[in-house]
Amino acid sequence: MQEHQQVASSEVNVHVSSHKSKNIVLFVIILLLLGVVGVGAYYLGKTEFNIEFSRRKPDQTKNEPEFKDDRLTPTQGLEPTVAPISGELKRLDRDLALFKVLNPSDSMIESHVYYEAGKLSGEWEVYTRIVAIRSQEGPGLPETYILATKDFQEYVLNDSANKTTRYQETDWESPLYLLDQGKVVKTAVFDSSLPEVINLNDQYVLYYSGLLTQYQETNKRDQYGNTIAEYHLKNDLSNFQPLSSPVSHLKMFFEPAHIDQSYIDEMPPETQAIMRSKANYILGDTNVIVVDSIGVPAIYSLTTPDAIKLTKQAEVSHGQKRLQYQEALKKYEAGEISDYPQYPESPGIPDLGFDRNVIIAESDHSFFDTYQTAFPSACALATPGTVVKVQDNDLEQIGTVFGLPLFRLKAEQHDLNKLAYQN
What we know:
There is one protein chain. With about 425 residues, the protein is α+β, with helices and mostly antiparallel strands. About 15% of the residues lie in helices and about 35% in strands. It has helices at about 165, 260-265, 270-280, 305-335, 415-420; strands at about 10-20, 25-35, 40-45, 85-90, 110-120, 130-135, 145-150, 155-160, 185-190, 195-200, 205-210, 215-220, 225-235, 240-245, 250-255, 280-285, 285-290, 295-305, 355, 360, 370-375, 385-390, 395-400, 405-410. The strands form six sheets. Strands 4-5-6-7-8-9 form a six-stranded mixed sheet, with no helix packed on it. Strands 10-11-18-17-15-14 form a six-stranded antiparallel sheet. The protein is globular and about 60 Å long.
């Protein structure tokens, strides 16, 4: 069997059927770009599920606000519940000063936005939930954090991903790289109403990947007269399609693809044809927007329990590799070694992508090493799978992934094949 070393792509194709209610049903098909001997072709992994899942009883695990002696070590072994938040969402007009000033000599004005986001419950009932947003200084989405405070003087960071223990404070992947420890004095795992994982059924789960924000220019200007922009929570979801939710106090939405026709009209004719073909197939992406009881919107990645397990394992080794990288970097800067150390790749957020070693093929096929999205939308951003229109009779099964059936497109000249290579 011929082996391919290049990275391939994956897509999630979703049939969207409207109902008389406001809910829609999604049938998911994972479309994969694979290699075959002699030619390149797409293969598809296919499975169906209905977002109208049976309601599950929320996890009743109690969450005690216990702290270890180490001021910045998260409480271990606590699983967040999914209890509703009380109160209201309110943007604050003052700077809580939760972020460090990384470059005091830099003239760039950093954009920080804060929200008071309701009261926590149970043992945390005396705490107010805080949302903090810091815009990136370069390309990429903003950093978002959920914290809790009793007095607006000291704050507790919700660190359900345990990044403060996996990474050193000086590591940019640690939340403490940006947050001021004079204000953020503890980290813990508490019920933020937006849990790390939401179970959909035995095959699929949603994984928290951050808060949903929107770019907006302000009337402020820097010393050079440039307009200062900021990111704030995106609360207008009127153009999103509602999904049924397995958790009573959490609303779920699908964001349809938006095609800017005026932008397409400015492209060369051959590019316009490609974009029009995309518009005929692409419906959106596989992220699900989850909104809690007072309106805080979050982005969740559609994934599988097995993908989460593999990501968690990769995170452990990644933390160790990061320490090795930092030690090697010190040696390079000191002139002890001549080769600049290679930065270890981050595992990222679990999604519908996977590696070749988890594919169980029914026949002798050649596969790429890694499968992710076939239609990336931008550089410097993590891109989820894409929801596209495809017919069941266009597919044939070739194996399984994580116990789910794996299919391919029968026709090598299918428009989706062509679009991925033209992307």
